[in-house]
Design a protein that fits this description.
251 residues; alpha/beta
């Protein structure tokens, strides 16, 4: 209900284009930037490190394709796990058609990825590692921080799909040590069709969508203001109620 109340004015009254120069766009622009701050606060990053997408699948596509293409002159090897969502595995299969190679790290009997196996999979031409934070089928929480220590020491970009963990357990990009993190709005009570991608300052993944340069030039297309506001509010609520929700879900 709180999310619906937050987004309603941007359907009914404040319907202007936030990227326009006229006054109808002022309130929508302010609302988009407020939502960016709310989303950033939930995952522990700066607001300018977050841009909005249509959901977790697009965020994963943008992260993997964008960084793979940006770093293709450095190497064409990607490491992920056999346990990933199709929104990662299918992207890797697509990139293989473009000349990239993918190594799938297995999981153990408990569905855990061993950081040692990740390290063993790395090669001199490895440019990107993607390991999900929490699995969508069995709920295992992967040792992302330990994997990040390995990738950081080798100068390799680490992405994590945090669609399932956000709003359920603490998620902090600095503590995890990740370079990119995907958010799926409907997993934390925003509407379906909205998401976000965290990209660490200094990284420049290739653009996923070209056009007029919205979202700080990272994703072109008129912003879906009401849904963005909804995601921001959902992130604010998730942060506010996380301790109570964790206790309830654990029980």
């Amino acid at each position: 209900p709180e999310v619906i109340a937050a987004m309603r004015p941007f359907i009914e009254v404040d319907f202007g284009n936030p990227s326009s120069a006229h006054w109808y766009g002022i309130k929508p622009r302010q609302a988009v930037e407020a939502a960016r701050r709310q989303t950033a606060a939930l995952i522990g990053c700066q607001a300018d490190e977050v841009f909005f997408t249509s959901g977790g699948t697009e965020s994963n596509n943008h992260a993997l394709k964008g960084m793979a293409h940006a770093l293709k002159d450095k190497g064409r090897h990607i490491v992920t796990s056999a346990f990933e969502h199709p929104a990662v595995l299918e992207v890797c299969r697509h990139l293989e058609k473009e000349g990239f190679e993918t190594t799938l790290v297995p999981v153990d009997d408990d569905g855990m990825v061993d950081p040692v196996r990740v390290r063993e999979a790395l090669r001199p031409d490895t440019v990107l590692v993607s390991i999900m934070h929490a699995n969508n089928e069995v709920g295992t929480i992967q040792p992302i921080a330990a994997i990040a220590e390995i990738t950081r020491s080798r100068g390799i970009i680490l992405h994590t799909d945090a669609a399932q963990s956000l709003g359920k357990i603490p998620v902090d990009v600095r503590a995890l040590g990740v370079d990119m993190l995907s958010v799926a709005g409907h997993k934390l009570y925003a509407p379906k069709g909205i998401g976000a991608l965290y990209v660490r300052r200094g990284l420049l993944p290739e653009k996923f969508c070209h056009g007029a340069g919205q979202e700080m030039g990272r994703r072109a297309g008129t912003e879906n203001v009401a849904w963005i506001v909804a995601l921001g509010k959902a992130c604010e609520i998730a942060a506010r109620d996380l301790t109570a929700n964790m206790a309830r879900m654990k029980e």
